[in-house]
Design goal:
Elements: H1 2-17, H2 19-24, H3 33-50, H4 57-80
Transmembrane segments: 6-24, 36-52, 58-81
Subcellular location: Membrane
Membrane topology: Multi-pass membrane protein
């Protein structure tokens, strides 16, 4: 559970450190790009903490699944469009 939590913890922090990258991959049909990126980062952090607490694990897991589904359009958009910067991961890999 710790590994999964760390995955989402790092992902949440990266949303705040590399906000511009995540804004760039947002589909054009969605508004409030920066706000949605920051909100998704907050929910990743909350989910990362929540899955470590036995009483909140199930609800946090459901929330993280919903978050993954919600951000999927940005992942598809990033894969399909050829915009500058899409081929570069914000962490350099």
């Amino acid at each position: 559970m710790l590994i999964i939590s760390l995955f989402f913890l790092v992902g949440g922090v990266v949303h705040f450190v590399f906000t511009d990258f995540f804004v760039m991959v947002m589909p054009d049909y969605l508004g409030y790009h920066k706000e949605l990126v920051l909100i998704s980062g907050i929910f990743e952090l909350l989910g990362a903490i929540g899955i470590l607490i036995p009483k909140t694990r199930f609800l946090a897991g459901c929330g993280l699944i919903a978050l993954i589904v919600a951000v999927y359009p940005a992942n598809i958009n990033m894969a399909l469009l050829n915009r500058p910067g899409y081929s570069r991961h914000p962490l350099g890999s």
